[in-house]
Amino acid sequence: VLSHNLCTVLNVPHDPVALEEHFRDDDEGPVSNQGYMPYLNKFILEKVQGNFDKVEFNRMCWTLCAKKNLSKSLLLISDEDAFKVWVIFNFLSEDKYPLIIVPEEIEYFLKKLTEAMGAGWQQEQFDHYKIALNTNREGLSAWELIDLIGSGQFSKGMDRQTVSMAINEVFNELILDVLKQGYMLKKGHKRKNWTERWFVLKPNIISYYISEDLRDKKGDIMLDGNCCVEALPDKDGKKCLFLIKCLDKSFEISASDKKKKQEWIQAIQTTVNLLRGGNPPPHKEARQKRKELRQKLLAEQEELERQMKELQTANENKQKELETVRKQLEAAAARAAEEEKKRLQTQVELQDRFSLELEREKMVRQKMEEQVAQKSSELEQYLQRVRELEEMYKQLQEALEDEKQARQDEETVRKLQARLLEEESAKRAELEKWHLQQQQTIQMTEAEKQELENQRLIKERALQVAMQQLEQLELERKEALEQYEEVKKKLETAANNTKSWKDKVAHHEGLIRLIEPGSKNPHLITNWGPAAFTEAELEQRQKSWKGKKATSE
Known about the structure:
It is a single chain. This protein is an alpha+beta fold. The protein has helices at 2-9, 16-22, 33-43, 54-69, 79-92, 103-117, 123-136, 142-150, 160-174, 258-277, 282-389, 397-442, 449-509, 535-552, and strands spanning 180-187, 194-202, 205-209, 217-222, 228-232, 241-245, 250-254, 523-526, 529-534. Among the domains are: 1-52, no CATH class; 178-280, Roll (PH-domain like); 385-421. The strands form 2 sheets. It has a 7-stranded antiparallel β-sheet, with helices on one face. It has a two-stranded antiparallel ribbon with strand order 8-9. Helix 6 crosses helix 9, helix 11 (282-389) packs antiparallel against helix 12 (397-442) and helix 12 (397-442) packs antiparallel against helix 13 (449-509). 12% of the residues are buried. Mean pLDDT is 82; it is low at 510-516. It comes from Eudromia elegans. Residues 177-273 form the PH domain. Residues 283-504 form a coiled coil.
């Protein structure tokens, strides 16, 4: 029965044999919705040509589903108005199953109803309703929309007839494509008389009826891109005239007033322009634009959500990386603190060791200075003795020459010792300077630790080199002491030789010249200091020695 009625309404030939063949093997009971859809698509919907009454088709679908889903207890609208709201829902709903009407289309529909009722649009009231709706779901089903309109929530203060007329007007515009309708006078083509007719303007046709119930249709004015409409001056006692020119006929029409005349001319001209451009009716074009805008916003929202997810994922990864870096930094800080602790401990130990070494070196240097002072005192006494012995005879010259060479060697050793002491003092000062620098490095900031560590290693190596140099100086000092002992032995030998010569001179000459205060005349200066005799005495002695030498020869 369902298939036969669908074929009848859609003007499709019914094929009972194909129906029996399709459901022959189905002996499991009633056919489900999913089981009937393949047959519906293949044998009925694919054969539809479009030359069927859409209102009758909607009424059949309404009959199938209204009894089960429509709630009649609280509705303030009739079944016919509920049917029209249902059809409008199917027109405005989204193209996906299950069908819903989104808040934007609900707002558009309610604005149309409010405008048709002649009331003011309450935007704030709808915003509250939209907020409550978005909290629970994406939109309304057909039956929820009927309940919303039938509850009178957005039509308070309006009677049922006004609401019904508004629904019918919106239905005519959106579903029946009625762009404008109303009573006007039409001039006949044969009798040339004026008759009142109910005109209905659609996207490609103007139909006129006897009355607004649309039962008795009197004719059509077919519109295309070649048609035009123009105003006419008043004539034959008729006012507000305008002319509709088509290819085969022209129609003279009289509106009730100038406002209606202008509205009709503008509506017909707009329709002709749409036909010329091949554009759909305004309400369908507006619906398509709203749908495209929603799709664009939805795509932008999905893209934004995708970017937000990517940002969130990247943020989580960054958080994980930061956590890993934080743990690594904590571990590195712990290791650095441990290494710093060890370094400070090593530094303290080195400082203690350097302090002990410095004390030891100070003691050694003090002892060396005492020994040098003592040796210097002895050397002064010895030099005084040598100056007294310079008054001896020529036979002491060789001994004096040996003594002079010994003194030169001793002077060389002394200078060497002085140089070694100066170098040792310089190294000591450098060691003390490095010690102070190491104390300053302890107070430096954490940011310079690595650089200070490198400097400390360099200074430690330099300190080791300095220690090696000190050891070398110590060896050289020991060698100088050994040379000094050798020189001392030579001096003792020279002194013994001098004493033996003194004995010989005393034996031969019978006297030893006593040491007397020197002359007030200028003294001679030798390599070892002021001489013990004057230049005149030296010349007298040379003459005496020469005379004795000549006598002996």
